[in-house]
Amino acid sequence: MILNSITGPEVLKDLSLDELQQLAAEIRTALIERISHHGGHFGPNLGLVEATIALHYVFNSPVDKLVFDVSHQIYTHKMLTGRVDSFLDPSKYDDVTGFSNFRESEHDCFVIGHTSTSISLALGLAKARDLKSTNENIVAIIGDGSLSGGEALEGLNVAGELNSNLIIVVNDNDMSIAENHGGLYKNLKELRESNGTSQNNLFKAMGLDYVFVPDGNDVESLISAFALVKDTSKPIVVHICTIKGKGYSHAENNKEQWHYAQPFTIETGEPLFSFSKESYGSITLDYLLTKMSEDNTVINITSGTPTIVGFTKDIREKHENQFIDVGIAEGTAIALSSGIARNGGKPVYSVFSSFIQRAFDQLSQDVCLNETPVTILVHGASVYGMSDATHIGIFDIPLMSNIPNLVYLAPTCKEEYLAMLDWSIDQNSYPVAIRVPGNGVVSSPSTFDSDYSKINKYILSRKGTKVAILALGSMFQLGEEIANRLNATLVNPRYITGLDIDILASLVDSHDLVVTIEDGILDGGFGQKIASFYGSTSVKVLNYGLNKEFYDRRNSDEVLKECRMTANQIIDDINKLQNQQ
Amino acid sequence: MILNSITGPEVLKDLSLDELQQLAAEIRTALIERISHHGGHFGPNLGLVEATIALHYVFNSPVDKLVFDVSHQIYTHKMLTGRVDSFLDPSKYDDVTGFSNFRESEHDCFVIGHTSTSISLALGLAKARDLKSTNENIVAIIGDGSLSGGEALEGLNVAGELNSNLIIVVNDNDMSIAENHGGLYKNLKELRESNGTSQNNLFKAMGLDYVFVPDGNDVESLISAFALVKDTSKPIVVHICTIKGKGYSHAENNKEQWHYAQPFTIETGEPLFSFSKESYGSITLDYLLTKMSEDNTVINITSGTPTIVGFTKDIREKHENQFIDVGIAEGTAIALSSGIARNGGKPVYSVFSSFIQRAFDQLSQDVCLNETPVTILVHGASVYGMSDATHIGIFDIPLMSNIPNLVYLAPTCKEEYLAMLDWSIDQNSYPVAIRVPGNGVVSSPSTFDSDYSKINKYILSRKGTKVAILALGSMFQLGEEIANRLNATLVNPRYITGLDIDILASLVDSHDLVVTIEDGILDGGFGQKIASFYGSTSVKVLNYGLNKEFYDRRNSDEVLKECRMTANQIIDDINKLQNQQ
After folding, report:
1. Beta-bridge partner residues of A459
2. Closest Cα partner for B107 from B2, B6, B218, B215?
3. Rg value, chain B, Cα
4. Taking CB atoms and an 8 Å limit, are A361 and B360 in contact across chains?
5. Does domain B459-580 have CATH number 3.40.50.920?
6. Chain B contact present for A289, CB below 8 A
């Protein structure tokens, strides 16, 4: 085995072409083995094995700098830069993250997890090099799927004006997570089909030089191409064509499903565990399909992640008139939603909390300032969706709830969620976002309002004494437990974006303490507004929420404990404070 | 005069070509006259007179829908759609805004003020039309300068896949506010020089059809071109070449300076009023020029607005190695800054508060998660910068201050600003943003720290009794007045992004009331964190800040009064609350 002797990229340079090809095979086997046990990004990693080997053979990392876009294709890079044990030794699988991480290795320039950032980040590295008058190569590696994002397209444009070294490797596997969407992909197809000779060329139109590598899974031709552009004095695109999932037939045949894999049996491709229970994704899907069939102005919008709400390929095809995937382009998804609403359509845009961060200004200017009645479903906005720091969804409340005109709703269970969703789609007065609960599907026998147009009306769910608990969205069940144990008042605020002055004022006479609990960071959020409201009164306030922190691959229960957000901890705090008085 | 008979666009359709040309001349005269008295966007409006006439001659607004990007070129459209009085009658100048506004006319689809949004908004209108099976034309009008923005480029890509009517008029005057930056402008030049025939074509590479109009100030050829594309069943770009400032020689000769005009004398072009007093722009310029000459790794970054800190053309040229304009592309400006810092450069990015909204995710992911020591100067973040709702800068504190790792500083005067700026550029530990004061340049005889690396340390500026005033940034002088009048404690918090637990806790024993004052919206901001801190104590808190509202062309003093933020109002509130106890 060659792979376990690769202590760093310098070792590669002494290998023959045959050995490099053997190394590629070994890496591929290791990737399949590790991901079959551990889970991880699958197709992107298998497709980029040869290109990563060729990059490290030709360039001199860490002096030369490689920036991987999204970095879900970085496993081979990690194996070749001193981290091979974490791919060969199951006990060390968790020693590395699934993404680029500068704290992990000097060969990783950044922490990266969101798409479309690599070119602009690399431009900065290049500009700093020019300021310092050094001469390292700067290489950005970006997939075709990431090219639809505004930051990537901006980066291509700015790169077209740089008068120094920058190499942009476009890894074209003709796929995003699902199929690509947008006109530029017709141009990539033209380029593939003309062996890179088409006169019409997006990259040249952005002012960049261009070379084409038809077989991006062939080490030899990749090495030639990279050697050719090494030390270039002008920015250049190297367009390589790779096969997503290369070397594992199930993945080659079903690229979308094998973008990311949960643990599976290598022989059959069958997953080891099944996740068949009801989810807010499936609940939303069922609802939307019915609603869409009843009203042909309802349209489901996604920005590259159609399966958040279960829109698999067959469903997308069946409902193509009421579905649009804008590619990875959250800003445009929001602006498009606003336009649809303004012209009488009923847009429903599903997006992960971590990704709506990419569309703040569109939310503020294109939607809220225009008061267009869009419906935005924010998924994964919860401590329970903990993953890499790049993808946590706990910042949406400060981000969204402080924008004027937006009605941001926090349902506490399935039935309330569906009632809010149904209201939102048919109303014409407000831009509405709904924070899809993150604590699993809870069903409630209560009845819920069907009309939410009188905004900022909280629900008094339980009358108690002295202490009132305001438990927002997916923290409602926790609030309920505490209220029951303490015979406290329980309030379901429902509206994240405003205060119910009547209810809040009514609590003053009969309560000494108001407790808020929210499922997101405390700073800039819901509870602090409540604290401000009571600031001039004798009512004390305790706010519970997460710390302002980039939690990285943390256990949700541990984080909650750290933030004193278990029922026992909150009850202890309440008792302590009450006893002081 | 024809112009004053134009009650709506339908009137145009009966005019002869000669009359349309006469109308153009009358409009141009009216524009120059009005702006010479009232101020306003100058060059963009003069350039688009003929195209707007031709659009309304060919299309049938408001059934057909026109979406103007940025909409700083919309004056002619307003004149032709029933609002001509607001351009001819000085007493009615203020009846219309300077931008597109759906509340003003059914001919305006949206409120628009930020760049690069028109294509995505128009796509939404088109998609809704297709859902409803109606057949109106949808037209986006976008300047070349706006094409560098991610949302515009995303929109072009998504448009390339639409299988129905969408017309994108690219108004190419070969200018942004300053000169354009980016590789795509080389392609626009190729297209202009080849009469639109260059095989390499950005728009075609995005999957769009394309026609070229060499003289975009010729009504006749514009009418022919628009008639040709009317009712197109596929998205098409109409690339028209116009002259920014057309018809006023001073503006044609100095396009950058005449992008926007303050009131001026028509004959000479001389401004009626001079603004020569010291500003934070000139203070920053002086500082940066010295710093850049001492350290050639310091680099000044802008996204299309170089003159925020006085980088006029001559200064840009003189310092081209330490200056970069990425075009209107705030996301890339932030990511680029991060890359520069990571590779040892010292980036200083100046941006308006309203525009940094366009780079939240880059600030969070590309900078803060990566802990790169960038310096961001946030200008116009103040109630004193009130203008159109699209451009107010009062949302930055909730937007930025809740991002982990960022150090957001609020200097209270010129000397403190310079001390913070100097520290920030040379330190290596934190991403730093500085909130440039908005209340005019105040000079202080106090001494200020040169080192801000012990973060979240507030300054106790005055020791008083019972009441403590925490007055942030440009609210410090107001806080000082109140503290002096009440013999209250005065604190300069300096750090927006964190609490000084020591100082805050030390106030508990000796103070009944803590008052916070900040120059931005209250929700999600600084004061609410203070209220949360004291929630479990007996200290009362009063938070002062602006309402969560899109203030539109409001007088700053009135807004402050509405928010009870004058010294007398705050003192009244304090006295009232103290007397209750």
Report:
1. A492
2. B6
3. 26
4. yes
5. yes
6. no
Contact (CB<8Å) A205/B182: no
CB neighbour list of residue B121: distance below 8 Å, 6 or more residues apart? A335, A336, A338, A339, A342, A366, B67, B109, B110, B112, B140
Give phi and psi for B140, each to the nearest 5. Answer: -100, 135
A68-107 residue pLDDT tens: 999 999 999 999 999 999 999 999 999 999 999 999 999 9
Rounded to whole angstroms, the Cα distance separating A264 from A35 reads 8
- The amino acid at residue A75 is Y
The answer to whether the B280-435 and B459-580 domains have the same CATH topology is yes
Amino acid symbol at B322: Q
Instruction: Return mean pLDDT, chain A.
Output: 97
Q: What is the DSSP letter of B362?
A: I
Pairing assessment for the beta strands A459-462 and A489-492 based on DSSP bridges: antiparallel
Q: Given CB atoms, is A209 within the 8 Å cutoff of chain B? A: no
* Radius of gyration, alpha carbons of chain A: 26
Residue appearing with tokens 């997308």: A316
Mean pLDDT over B227-243 rounds to: 98
Query: Chain centroid to CA B358: how far?
Result: 10
Q: Which residue type occupies A254? A: N
B34 touches chain A (CB under 8 A): no
Domain B3-261, CATH: 3.40.50.970
Domain extent listing, chain A: 3-261, 280-435, 459-580
Surface of B (42-71) touching A: CB under 8 A: 65
Is A524 at the interface with chain B, CB within 8 A? Answer: yes
Q: Per residue in B187-198, pLDDT tens?
A: 999 999 999 999
Could you list the beta-strand ranges (E) of B33-76: 40-41, 65-68
The torsion angles phi and psi of B437, rounded to 5 degrees, stand at: -60, 145
Residue A138 C-beta-side C-alpha neighbours within 13 Å: 28
Find tokens 């993150």 and name the residue: A438
The β-bridge partners of A143 are A171
Tell the CATH topology of A280-435.
Answer: Rossmann fold (3.40.50)
